[in-house]
Amino acid sequence: MIKILDYTTDYLSYCEYQKKLNPQTLKAYRIDLKQFSDFIKNSDGNLSKANINSYITHLHKNFKTKSVKRKLASVKALFNYLKFEEVLAENPFEKISVKFQEPSILPRTIPLKIIKSILLSAYDESLKEDISIYAKSCILRNIAVLELLFATGIRVSELCSLSPANIDLNAKYICIYGKGSKERLIQIPNAEVITALKKYYAAFSKQINNSNYFFINKNGNRLSEQSVRFMIKSYEKKLSLKIHITPHMFRHSFATLLLEEDVDIRYIQKLLGHSSIVTTQIYTHVALSKQKKILKSKHPRNKFQTYSTLKKE
User: Catalytic: 266?
Assistant: First the structure.
Protein backbone atom coordinates (compact mmCIF):
# COMPACT_ATOMS: atom_id res chain seq x y z
CA MET A 1 0.00 0.00 0.00
CA ILE A 2 1.16 3.55 -0.70
CA LYS A 3 1.71 5.85 2.27
CA ILE A 4 -0.86 8.56 1.65
CA LEU A 5 0.86 11.24 3.72
CA ASP A 6 4.04 10.79 1.66
CA TYR A 7 2.19 12.28 -1.31
CA THR A 8 0.20 14.91 0.57
CA THR A 9 2.91 17.58 0.40
CA ASP A 10 3.26 17.29 -3.38
CA TYR A 11 -0.49 17.27 -3.81
CA LEU A 12 -1.01 20.34 -1.62
CA SER A 13 1.75 22.16 -3.53
CA TYR A 14 -0.08 21.30 -6.74
CA CYS A 15 -3.31 22.67 -5.22
CA GLU A 16 -1.61 25.86 -4.03
CA TYR A 17 0.49 26.79 -7.05
CA GLN A 18 -1.37 25.25 -9.99
CA LYS A 19 -4.98 25.20 -8.84
CA LYS A 20 -4.46 28.44 -6.86
CA LEU A 21 -6.56 27.31 -3.89
CA ASN A 22 -6.72 29.63 -0.89
CA PRO A 23 -4.95 28.92 2.45
CA GLN A 24 -8.17 27.97 4.24
CA THR A 25 -9.01 25.33 1.62
CA LEU A 26 -5.48 23.95 1.80
CA LYS A 27 -5.70 23.76 5.59
CA ALA A 28 -8.99 21.82 5.34
CA TYR A 29 -7.46 19.43 2.77
CA ARG A 30 -4.47 18.79 5.01
CA ILE A 31 -6.69 17.91 7.98
CA ASP A 32 -9.02 15.72 5.89
CA LEU A 33 -6.18 13.75 4.31
CA LYS A 34 -4.45 13.13 7.65
CA GLN A 35 -7.72 11.87 9.17
CA PHE A 36 -8.16 9.42 6.31
CA SER A 37 -4.53 8.29 6.43
CA ASP A 38 -4.68 7.72 10.20
CA PHE A 39 -7.88 5.71 9.89
CA ILE A 40 -6.49 3.44 7.17
CA LYS A 41 -3.20 3.02 9.05
CA ASN A 42 -5.09 1.97 12.18
CA SER A 43 -7.05 -0.56 10.14
CA ASP A 44 -5.07 -3.22 8.24
CA GLY A 45 -3.36 -0.54 6.15
CA ASN A 46 -5.03 -1.48 2.85
CA LEU A 47 -7.11 0.72 0.56
CA SER A 48 -9.74 -1.97 0.32
CA LYS A 49 -13.41 -1.37 -0.39
CA ALA A 50 -14.26 -2.61 3.11
CA ASN A 51 -11.86 -0.15 4.77
CA ILE A 52 -13.09 2.78 2.73
CA ASN A 53 -16.70 1.92 3.51
CA SER A 54 -15.77 1.69 7.20
CA TYR A 55 -14.20 5.13 6.95
CA ILE A 56 -17.36 6.55 5.40
CA THR A 57 -19.41 5.04 8.24
CA HIS A 58 -16.93 6.48 10.75
CA LEU A 59 -17.38 9.96 9.25
CA HIS A 60 -21.17 9.75 9.39
CA LYS A 61 -20.99 8.80 13.06
CA ASN A 62 -18.76 11.72 13.99
CA PHE A 63 -19.50 14.59 11.61
CA LYS A 64 -22.40 16.43 10.04
CA THR A 65 -23.39 15.51 6.51
CA LYS A 66 -21.90 18.64 4.96
CA SER A 67 -18.53 17.95 6.61
CA VAL A 68 -18.65 14.30 5.51
CA LYS A 69 -19.16 15.34 1.89
CA ARG A 70 -16.22 17.74 2.04
CA LYS A 71 -13.88 15.25 3.69
CA LEU A 72 -14.69 12.56 1.14
CA ALA A 73 -14.28 15.03 -1.72
CA SER A 74 -10.81 15.91 -0.38
CA VAL A 75 -9.72 12.27 -0.35
CA LYS A 76 -11.24 11.51 -3.75
CA ALA A 77 -9.45 14.51 -5.25
CA LEU A 78 -6.10 13.25 -3.89
CA PHE A 79 -6.64 9.84 -5.47
CA ASN A 80 -7.63 11.40 -8.79
CA TYR A 81 -4.32 13.29 -8.66
CA LEU A 82 -2.37 10.11 -7.84
CA LYS A 83 -4.05 8.28 -10.70
CA PHE A 84 -3.24 11.14 -13.10
CA GLU A 85 0.39 11.10 -11.93
CA GLU A 86 0.39 7.28 -12.46
CA VAL A 87 1.22 6.60 -8.81
CA LEU A 88 -1.97 4.50 -8.69
CA ALA A 89 -3.46 2.42 -11.48
CA GLU A 90 -6.98 3.34 -10.38
CA ASN A 91 -8.85 5.48 -7.89
CA PRO A 92 -10.18 3.14 -5.16
CA PHE A 93 -13.21 5.42 -4.73
CA GLU A 94 -14.38 4.85 -8.32
CA LYS A 95 -16.10 1.56 -7.38
CA ILE A 96 -17.68 2.93 -4.22
CA SER A 97 -20.93 4.86 -4.12
CA VAL A 98 -20.60 7.85 -1.83
CA LYS A 99 -23.82 9.59 -2.79
CA PHE A 100 -26.14 10.35 0.07
CA GLN A 101 -28.95 12.74 0.85
CA GLU A 102 -27.90 15.95 2.54
CA PRO A 103 -30.63 17.39 4.76
CA SER A 104 -32.00 20.69 3.52
CA ILE A 105 -31.45 23.30 6.20
CA LEU A 106 -32.81 26.77 5.60
CA PRO A 107 -30.23 29.52 6.11
CA ARG A 108 -30.55 31.50 9.34
CA THR A 109 -30.83 35.23 8.80
CA ILE A 110 -30.56 38.31 11.00
CA PRO A 111 -33.58 40.65 11.17
CA LEU A 112 -32.75 43.99 9.59
CA LYS A 113 -33.50 45.86 12.82
CA ILE A 114 -30.87 43.78 14.63
CA ILE A 115 -28.26 44.42 11.93
CA LYS A 116 -29.03 48.12 12.31
CA SER A 117 -28.73 47.95 16.10
CA ILE A 118 -25.32 46.21 15.87
CA LEU A 119 -24.00 48.82 13.44
CA LEU A 120 -25.36 51.70 15.52
CA SER A 121 -23.74 50.24 18.63
CA ALA A 122 -20.38 50.06 16.89
CA TYR A 123 -20.70 53.61 15.55
CA ASP A 124 -21.68 54.88 19.03
CA GLU A 125 -18.54 53.28 20.47
CA SER A 126 -16.38 55.14 17.94
CA LEU A 127 -17.70 58.48 19.24
CA LYS A 128 -16.54 57.89 22.82
CA GLU A 129 -13.81 60.24 23.98
CA ASP A 130 -12.57 58.31 27.02
CA ILE A 131 -10.88 55.53 25.04
CA SER A 132 -7.32 55.12 23.76
CA ILE A 133 -6.31 55.80 20.18
CA TYR A 134 -5.67 52.10 19.61
CA ALA A 135 -9.07 51.10 21.07
CA LYS A 136 -10.76 53.59 18.76
CA SER A 137 -8.81 52.18 15.82
CA CYS A 138 -10.04 48.68 16.69
CA ILE A 139 -13.63 49.96 16.77
CA LEU A 140 -13.10 51.46 13.31
CA ARG A 141 -11.95 47.99 12.20
CA ASN A 142 -15.07 46.42 13.74
CA ILE A 143 -17.26 48.87 11.83
CA ALA A 144 -15.43 48.20 8.56
CA VAL A 145 -15.78 44.43 9.02
CA LEU A 146 -19.49 44.61 9.89
CA GLU A 147 -20.25 47.01 7.06
CA LEU A 148 -18.42 44.89 4.48
CA LEU A 149 -20.04 41.64 5.63
CA PHE A 150 -23.50 43.10 5.13
CA ALA A 151 -22.75 45.29 2.10
CA THR A 152 -21.29 42.50 -0.03
CA GLY A 153 -22.38 39.12 1.39
CA ILE A 154 -18.70 38.16 1.51
CA ARG A 155 -17.70 34.95 3.31
CA VAL A 156 -15.69 35.57 6.48
CA SER A 157 -12.75 33.56 5.07
CA GLU A 158 -12.82 35.72 1.93
CA LEU A 159 -12.95 38.89 4.02
CA CYS A 160 -9.98 37.89 6.17
CA SER A 161 -7.98 36.98 3.05
CA LEU A 162 -8.50 40.34 1.30
CA SER A 163 -5.34 42.21 0.38
CA PRO A 164 -5.09 46.01 -0.11
CA ALA A 165 -4.89 45.37 -3.87
CA ASN A 166 -8.34 43.71 -3.73
CA ILE A 167 -10.02 46.93 -2.59
CA ASP A 168 -10.33 50.14 -4.60
CA LEU A 169 -11.92 52.72 -2.31
CA ASN A 170 -11.90 55.41 -5.00
CA ALA A 171 -13.60 53.25 -7.65
CA LYS A 172 -15.75 51.78 -4.84
CA TYR A 173 -15.44 48.06 -5.48
CA ILE A 174 -13.75 44.98 -4.07
CA CYS A 175 -12.33 41.97 -5.86
CA ILE A 176 -13.08 38.70 -4.05
CA TYR A 177 -11.31 35.40 -4.65
CA GLY A 178 -13.84 32.77 -3.62
CA LYS A 179 -14.04 29.00 -3.60
CA GLY A 180 -12.14 27.34 -6.41
CA SER A 181 -10.23 30.62 -6.94
CA LYS A 182 -13.25 32.09 -8.70
CA GLU A 183 -13.00 35.87 -8.90
CA ARG A 184 -15.91 38.28 -8.55
CA LEU A 185 -16.12 42.06 -8.44
CA ILE A 186 -18.67 43.71 -6.16
CA GLN A 187 -19.50 47.40 -6.25
CA ILE A 188 -19.93 49.30 -2.97
CA PRO A 189 -22.12 52.29 -3.84
CA ASN A 190 -23.10 53.11 -0.25
CA ALA A 191 -21.20 56.23 0.88
CA GLU A 192 -21.24 55.30 4.58
CA VAL A 193 -19.68 51.90 3.89
CA ILE A 194 -16.90 53.47 1.83
CA THR A 195 -16.32 56.07 4.54
CA ALA A 196 -16.06 53.31 7.17
CA LEU A 197 -13.47 51.46 5.07
CA LYS A 198 -11.47 54.65 4.47
CA LYS A 199 -11.41 55.53 8.18
CA TYR A 200 -10.22 52.04 9.06
CA TYR A 201 -7.53 52.14 6.35
CA ALA A 202 -6.32 55.54 7.56
CA ALA A 203 -5.95 54.15 11.09
CA PHE A 204 -3.97 51.05 10.05
CA SER A 205 -2.44 51.98 6.67
CA LYS A 206 1.18 51.31 7.67
CA GLN A 207 0.44 47.91 9.23
CA ILE A 208 -1.84 46.97 6.31
CA ASN A 209 0.83 47.70 3.72
CA ASN A 210 3.43 45.80 5.73
CA SER A 211 1.25 42.70 6.17
CA ASN A 212 -0.34 42.67 2.70
CA TYR A 213 -3.71 41.91 4.31
CA PHE A 214 -6.45 44.52 4.46
CA PHE A 215 -7.84 43.37 7.82
CA ILE A 216 -5.15 42.87 10.44
CA ASN A 217 -4.92 42.00 14.14
CA LYS A 218 -3.07 43.74 16.97
CA ASN A 219 0.20 42.08 15.92
CA GLY A 220 -0.08 43.37 12.37
CA ASN A 221 -0.90 39.91 11.01
CA ARG A 222 -3.93 38.66 9.13
CA LEU A 223 -7.19 39.04 11.09
CA SER A 224 -8.53 35.55 11.82
CA GLU A 225 -12.04 34.28 11.21
CA GLN A 226 -12.26 33.45 14.91
CA SER A 227 -11.48 37.07 15.82
CA VAL A 228 -14.40 38.20 13.65
CA ARG A 229 -16.69 35.71 15.40
CA PHE A 230 -15.58 36.93 18.84
CA MET A 231 -16.13 40.53 17.77
CA ILE A 232 -19.70 39.84 16.62
CA LYS A 233 -20.37 37.87 19.79
CA SER A 234 -19.27 40.88 21.87
CA TYR A 235 -21.98 43.03 20.28
CA GLU A 236 -24.46 40.19 20.69
CA LYS A 237 -23.75 40.21 24.45
CA LYS A 238 -23.66 43.99 24.74
CA LEU A 239 -27.10 44.31 23.13
CA SER A 240 -28.50 41.26 25.00
CA LEU A 241 -29.67 39.76 21.74
CA LYS A 242 -31.76 36.61 21.94
CA ILE A 243 -30.29 35.06 18.82
CA HIS A 244 -26.79 33.71 18.24
CA ILE A 245 -25.21 35.55 15.32
CA THR A 246 -22.40 34.26 13.11
CA PRO A 247 -20.52 36.05 10.30
CA HIS A 248 -22.15 33.76 7.74
CA MET A 249 -25.60 34.94 8.83
CA PHE A 250 -24.73 38.37 7.39
CA ARG A 251 -24.23 36.62 4.04
CA HIS A 252 -27.59 34.84 4.35
CA SER A 253 -29.27 38.12 5.30
CA PHE A 254 -27.65 39.95 2.39
CA ALA A 255 -29.06 37.40 -0.08
CA THR A 256 -32.50 37.03 1.49
CA LEU A 257 -33.14 40.76 1.89
CA LEU A 258 -32.11 41.41 -1.73
CA LEU A 259 -34.48 38.66 -2.85
CA GLU A 260 -37.30 40.22 -0.83
CA GLU A 261 -36.58 43.48 -2.68
CA ASP A 262 -37.30 41.62 -5.95
CA VAL A 263 -33.67 41.42 -7.09
CA ASP A 264 -33.32 38.71 -9.77
CA ILE A 265 -31.90 35.53 -8.23
CA ARG A 266 -29.34 35.31 -11.06
CA TYR A 267 -27.77 38.58 -9.90
CA ILE A 268 -27.71 37.31 -6.32
CA GLN A 269 -26.01 34.13 -7.54
CA LYS A 270 -23.19 36.19 -9.08
CA LEU A 271 -22.87 38.43 -6.01
CA LEU A 272 -22.51 35.38 -3.76
CA GLY A 273 -20.11 33.62 -6.12
CA HIS A 274 -22.22 30.46 -6.45
CA SER A 275 -21.28 28.18 -9.35
CA SER A 276 -24.83 26.87 -9.63
CA ILE A 277 -28.10 28.72 -9.21
CA VAL A 278 -29.37 25.62 -7.38
CA THR A 279 -27.24 26.68 -4.41
CA THR A 280 -28.73 30.16 -4.47
CA GLN A 281 -32.31 28.92 -4.73
CA ILE A 282 -32.34 27.91 -1.06
CA TYR A 283 -32.92 31.60 -0.31
CA THR A 284 -36.21 31.52 -2.19
CA HIS A 285 -37.55 29.19 0.52
CA VAL A 286 -36.60 31.71 3.18
CA ALA A 287 -38.25 34.51 1.22
CA LEU A 288 -41.43 32.46 0.71
CA SER A 289 -41.55 31.69 4.42
CA LYS A 290 -41.30 35.40 5.14
CA GLN A 291 -43.95 36.10 2.54
CA LYS A 292 -46.38 33.68 4.14
CA LYS A 293 -45.83 35.25 7.55
CA ILE A 294 -46.42 38.74 6.19
CA LEU A 295 -49.57 37.84 4.29
CA LYS A 296 -50.96 35.95 7.27
CA SER A 297 -50.41 38.77 9.76
CA LYS A 298 -50.59 41.93 7.65
CA HIS A 299 -53.02 41.33 4.81
CA PRO A 300 -56.19 43.46 5.31
CA ARG A 301 -58.39 40.55 4.19
CA ASN A 302 -57.66 38.90 7.54
CA LYS A 303 -59.45 41.73 9.37
CA PHE A 304 -62.96 40.65 8.47
CA GLN A 305 -65.09 37.54 7.97
CA THR A 306 -67.60 36.84 5.24
CA TYR A 307 -71.24 36.02 5.84
CA SER A 308 -70.64 32.40 4.70
CA THR A 309 -67.95 31.93 7.36
CA LEU A 310 -70.16 33.40 10.06
CA LYS A 311 -73.07 31.22 9.00
CA LYS A 312 -70.98 28.06 9.39
CA GLU A 313 -70.09 29.08 12.91
Answer: no
Tell me what pLDDT residue 22 has.
78
Please give the pLDDT value at position 2: 60
Q: Is 274 a catalytic residue?
A: yes
Q: Among 70, 248, 270, 290, which one carries the catalytic annotation? A: 248
Cα–Cα distance, 267 to 263 (Å, whole number): 7
Marked catalytic residue, from 71, 141, 155, 252? 155
In tens, the pLDDT along 208-228 reads 999 989 999 999 999 999 999
What one-letter code names the amino acid at 83? K
Q: Quick one: CA torsion of 224, 163, 148, 258, rounded to 10 degrees?
A: -110
- Indicate if 70 belongs to the active site: no
Helices (H), 45-190: 49-62, 65-84, 112-126, 133-152, 156-160
285 included as an active-site residue: no
Q: Say how far apart CA 92 and CA 82 lie, in whole Å.
A: 11
In sequence order, the β-bridge partners of residue 216 are 222
The verdict on whether 58 is a catalytic residue reads no
**How far, rounded to the nearest angstrom, does the alpha carbon of residue 210 sit from its chain's CA centroid?**
26
80: pLDDT strictly greater than 70: yes
**Domains of the chain with bracketed CATH:** 4-95 (1.10.150.130), 117-248 (1.10.443.10)
pTM: 0.73
